[in-house]
Amino acid sequence: MTTVARFFADTRAALTATLGSDGEADAAARVLFEDIAGYDRNYIFANGDREILPFIMDKINAAVSAVRAGEPVQYAAGKALFMGMMLKVTPAVLIPRFETEGLVDMIVDAAGGASDLRVLDIGTGSGCIAIALARALAFARVTAVDVSADALAVARDNATALHADICFRQLDILKAGAPPEPLYDIVVSNPPYITEKERADMDPRVADREPAQALFVSDADPMLFYRAIAAYAAGALVSGGRIFLEINQNYPEQVRAVLAAAGFADIAVSRDYRGNFRYAAATLPH
Length: 286
Prior knowledge:
This protein is α/β, with parallel strands linked by helices. The protein contains twelve helices and eleven strands. It has two domains: about 5-75, Ubiquitin-associated (UBA) domain (Helicase, Ruva Protein, domain 3); about 90-285, 3-Layer(aba) Sandwich (Rossmann fold). It has helices at about 5-20, 20-35, 40-45, 55-70, 75, 100-110, 130-135, 150-160, 205, 210-215, 225-235, 250-260, and strands spanning about 80, 85-90, 120, 140-145, 165-170, 185-190, 195, 215, 235-245, 265-270, 275-285. Helix 6 (about 100-110) runs parallel beside helix 7.
């Protein structure tokens, strides 16, 4: 008989051989056990001597094999945690990250309890930002766009599972014309911002496995998406509306200049929990 505790230890050992860190392997094993089997830390502690069913072992072993072959843990599990929400993730979308939770927190704090805000999320991916805002802002009307039909399918599944009422539509922001009229109080985006020259310093599980079109921008034009988003937002926001962006830590002043050139005021860049420049916010003047 294989117990829950024994199988967890074996899984952690197999992951340690691949990930090279006891701490990372332990966290990965816990993700797989919770996401695949529903066995969280407390369950494993309280029920470690129970027999683990063969079909659960097979599913976890398949995920471990995928991780050992270079797959990110979240893709292997098919799920990722973001702001307390369990989201479906596939290789069509970026894996939501803790830094992006800080962007959502900024917006919720800035909203100051306002209701009925109209929000546009550009490049929604898994839908993590749009869904978090739809759940956190009172009676918010959220629209989320992405160039990828596959990403939008994942985002729709997540919104349905989490009972978030969001309008999704396909849009290539680099080819989008001017919006028909100012409709939104808030525009938010976490666009591609990693330059190709930074790829060599990245974890291969990110650089080689997550969608390149959602990660990378040419070294020759790192502000490509910020210019397009700022220009679109300048026409899409009502007077006094605000834009919030996740940014590359190496280009805070360049993002500030892009926003200023698009007509935004009260431009501020701020740091994430690691102390790196990670966010920009600005207001469209009245």
